[in-house]
Amino acid sequence: MTLVLALTACGKNSTGNSNTSTDVTGTPTNTDNNNPGNSNEVAKPKQITFMVNGTLITKENGQDEVVKAYEEKTGIKLIVNQPAHNEYYEKVDLAFATGEIPDVLLLSTDMYVTYAVNGALYDITDLYEKSEVKNNMVDQSIVDALRLDGRLYGLPVERGNGPITYVRGDWLEKLNIDVPTNYDEFIEMLRKFRDEDPDGNGEKDTIPFTAPGLMGINYVREFYQDANPGFYKKDGKWVDGMTEPEMKAALQRMQDAYKEGLIDKEVVTNKTSTCRDKFYAGNVGVFNYWAGLWNQTLQNNIEANVPEAKVLPIPAIAETKYIERVAPPVSITTKCENPEGVFKYFLEFMLDCGEGQTLFTHGIEGLMYEMKDGKMVKLPSMQDPNTTFDKVFMSGSLSITKYDDPYEYPDIIMNSLAMFQKDAVQDVLLPASEVLTKYMSELDSIKSEIIAKVVYGEATVDEGLNEYTQKAKGYVDQILADINK
């Protein structure tokens, strides 16, 4: 079974519902725009409209200055449409519904599949295959994860990344515990966190393991292992993971661990922010969260309360792998009048391993960073001078190209990323399906209810799965019939 889990040459090399499959049902509609010409000369657009969420630098933090710098470097006017971050995807749907469609935009992976299959996104496959960007890529699988029937309708601009398991390293040292390498060792570690007062307050009040709910398999890796409550490909066919044998074993693991007091009693109602706050307070032993920058953030925040705390990322245990999400793509729409020009002067420019990538990663020298003794030093943020500037759009630590990044990220960030990437499998896209979209919310509610009931001990595993079949079979049969046709 598979888990569901540019314009200038490069410098030297620098350091959800999950499924694993490369097939996607449905062939996106081609338009007259989807056939690149044979000419090597690409007309430069006079302007480009770009719709993006809060991952792009805000106006308060220097967006206008970056846009001006882009215009000076390319001679192209860039018009940014940046709705409020929490309203972004609603605004994207509205834009397509009203016809107010930008040339290029950032999409969620679900939206990417839907709009590609509906013919709203430009097929960039031929442009990509002939581009310098392809040669610049560190790992083609990151791009290939976005292929629909072998075709590309967008490009990632950074890695998808994903959660890694963070353990209180100082607790391991205090209790003389080795880093766990398999599930049995992992459970034994949690038991010692529960029983041996690792925080030293004289009370049996530690939370061995916390997570934001039980449906997100990225946050409960050690318990799910090779199981997945979502839809995934098995032997060439899409299946409902809730009815597979692996799910039965995963539910039993979670039920047993919860009964032993190894899993946070509030796990079902936790949000990610709740888990972070509990971790920062210093009484949580294990928390699965994003690799990389978050390792530094978790460490900084917990140190404010527990100065001796050590946030230690660990390799995936033997029974499982971490999951790298499919990176959200930047896509050119079929409403764009000059898609070849937008690809060359916008997408390729951002991923050129040179001045374009530096601009969209680190910003403007003298405003967002300065060079000292050949090294990049970040300057205070324009929006909050008490913090240093982070990024414009792309994180250099998650670069997908051979970009020779002039900024040296702290080891705590790069080491956790390297560990995650070594032990991760690439997630893939679910197929586009109106039936799946129609019933997914209701089906997820049923799954969440059943999983919680079983883990809390209100039903046996068999009772829970039987109840799931009774409540969900009608939805599941329709979905599987549609996505397997």
Automatic annotation (TrEMBL):
Classification via Pfam families: SBP_bac_1 (PF01547)
Keywords annotated in UniProt: Cell membrane, Lipoprotein, Membrane, Palmitate, Signal
Signal sequence interval, chain numbering: none
Ranges of compositional bias, category Low complexity: 19-40
Keyword Cell membrane in record: yes
Region (Disordered): 12-42
InterPro entries xrefs: Bact_solute-bd_prot1, SBP
Coiled coil: none
UniProt protein name: Lipoprotein LipO
Gene of this entry: lipO1
